[in-house]
Write a structure and sequence with these properties.
Chain A: Keywords: Membrane, Transmembrane, Transmembrane helix. The complex is a heterodimer. Chain A contains nine helices and no strands. The longest helix of chain A is centred in the N-terminal third of the chain and has 38 residues. Chain A is mostly helical. Chain A has one domain. In chain A, helix 1 packs antiparallel against helix 2. Chain B has two domains: about 45 residues, no CATH class; about 110 residues, no CATH class. Chain B is about 80% helix and about 0% strand. In chain B, helix 2 packs across helix 7, helix 5 runs antiparallel to helix 6 and helix 6 packs antiparallel against helix 8. Classes of the chains: A mainly alpha, B mainly alpha.
Chain lengths: ~200, ~180
Amino acid sequence: MVNYIWVFMTLIGLVFAGINGTMAEVNEAIFNGAKEAVTLCIGLISILVFWLGMMKIAESAGLLDKLSNLFRPLISRLFPEVPPGHPAMGYILSNMMANLFGLGNAATPLGIKAMEELKRLNGGRDTVSRSMVTFLAINTSSITLIPTTVIAIRMTYHSAAPTEIVGPTLIATCFSAVAAIFIDRYFHYRRTRKG
Amino acid sequence: MQLISAISLWIIPVLIGFILVYGTLKKVPTYETFVEGGKEGIKMAVSIIPFLVGMMVAISVFRASGALDYFMEFIRPGLEKIGIPADVIPLAIIRPISGNAALGMTSDLIAAHGPDSFIGRLASTLQGSTDTTFYVLTVYFGAVGIKKMGDALKVGLLADLAGFAAAIVVVTIMFG
């Protein structure tokens, strides 16, 4: 499916540029897009190295196990395929915590680690597993306690109450997280029924 | 407000301090373990590059050609009919696709309408309440080499949609 979306977006863009006369912009966009992607990845190196290093210490010290023990009932219900005490749980939980506190740059390395563990659980295959879909759904609808960037923007524009959106954001993210879990369950149900 | 900014200022340093103290007490060779874990980060970042280049070029082309604007104009009447303000529609569409573009749009909307206007509050809530699904999908699956994504994209986008709907309803009830 991702193949079709990818080709579709690019082709529609190219055809549109032809009709619209925006070929010059598209030429620029091709190289700028590629450049931006590489810049982003290079920027990620510092964050990935630092947080994965820190997390390795936390893992060796047994902190991740402690964390997953604490939330085991919740997590094992959400991820029935992950055996209790599996390292994937620790990473899934720390990723959720990082998202909760708006630490986007700490969340990414942990999320990748969680995916790596889930892939191992799935026999190392290159196909998506049920737990991966669930993890992704919860992750993209991330429950946020403090949307730091938005508060910063609101302060820049002299809001009378920059943090008044914390409440609505929390309610909206909780709702989308619950919806994500239900949508994920529905698709899982449909898959298993088909065989 | 001051409490919240104090918390967000302290949380990372406190976390780092805690991990280091705990690790030392548990007799973990902290520095060596840090380096060992950090090495994985380099491999990860490099392995994401091709996935992100492919995705971001497609998105840039789609945007720069004007196709995205046209698409938004196309679905605008339908969305306005169910009570979604036209101004936030571009933001709602771009949010799952590009985090930077969405942040730019949120700033524009807040600058144009004021942070304490209905549109400003709605844009703030929309921006804070979902993540860049395409980016998360590309990076997470790219880094570990998942090629067949199954229902992941559909589930992610539907969850975003639920988040937008919730944001609009909540902001309308609280500030509308």
